Amino acid sequence: MSFKPSQHQVAGHDGCLIAKGLFAKPSNDRESSFYSQLIEFDNKKAKSFTDQDDQSGYVGDYLSNWVPSYFGDLTENQLDEPLDLDFDQMNVASKFIPPKGLVSTDKKYILLSNLYEDFVSPSILDIKLGSVLTDDLATPEKVERLHKVSQSTTSGSLGFRICGMKLFQKDEKLPDLSKFKNDAIKIDETVQSDDGYLKFNKIFGRSLTPGTVPDALRLFISNSVDEKFQYHYLEQFYKRLQLLYNCLLDYEVRIISGSLLFIIENNPTILGRVEDPEEFDPLISDKFDINENDEEEDDDDDDDDNENPHKKTIKKLSSLNMIDFAHATFVPGQGPDDNVLQGVENLIKIFEDILEVQ
């Protein structure tokens, strides 16, 4: 198993790598510690439900349902070597038991599940949460700089900001971007057409206002997708955001500069084979409800998935995940993270408003 540069990264720092089912990103000890503590916390939470004969709680009740699976840490030199762990083992490991032998004292990369793996032609949206964008370790210069960014963007007014967006194009016709034009930027310079995708950079997101953010969300959902799937995606994300909000109320954490990653399938061949979208689009990936006796799917055609979507097994149509915990900590006794909750709450309201007129 060898790693190569990720082709679907839309925001954040460069240098992320992928292998089959895996995503390796440059990281720090704080992010590794957060994932490790989350695994321990949610395992105890699951056990408490089991002890009470109360199954495993409510849908989306665990923060682990909303984050990538964590498999430990690798050094840079380990990434150049074949990884002595097959993907079937990784699937088992996703039940919050990091595989042995991966942890190194010289941490450079954090090893996570690849959230893009189940999609053929994904459109991707990265939304940074919070109006406060720096943690207690930031320098005064960084605090001042990012405070100005927050005050001049929707980070300050809405508690979230679109950081990057990548839209699949099934034809060469460009969407109408006239709603996003303003005197501060040239909108054409914030969007790049490349290899069948439209890529919107961070300047596009910083130029948005509370009035144009809903238009950007509509564009993400509607580009290259017919009305049946548009409504389905909007409804699924609306439900997921509500579940996530309720989940976060139970966690005493501070997640600075964390993001929500929205992904939708846009491949016309895949979508053309779907009669009922909900059949292939569960609200969450329930990591505490994995049946170990289920037969493994045949993955022999995975290498040809992108080349021949007709042979692609339909695995997922959309997903919502929380990512980026390099500045995240558990804070027992201090209550939930209002900085993050504000942004999620405002997103819920915007999706609700869009659905009402859809």
Secondary structure layout:
Elements: E1 4-5, E2 17-19, E3 22-26, H1 29-51, E4 70-74, H2 76-79, H3 87-93, E5 109-113, E6 122-129, H4 140-152, H5 154-158, E7 160-168, E8 191-194, E9 197-200, H6 202-207, H7 213-222, H8 227-248, E10 253-255, E11 259-265, H9 268-272, E12 318-323, E13 328-330, H10 338-357
Protein name: Inositol polyphosphate multikinase
Q: What spatial form do the alpha-carbon principal axes imply?
A: globular
CATH superfamily of the largest domain: Inositol polyphosphate kinase
State Rg: 20 Å
Number of domains: 2
Fold-level CATH name of the largest domain: D-amino Acid Aminotransferase, Chain A, domain 1
Order of helix and strand elements from N to C terminus: EEEHEHHEEHHEEEHHHEEHEEH
Protein name: Inositol polyphosphate multikinase
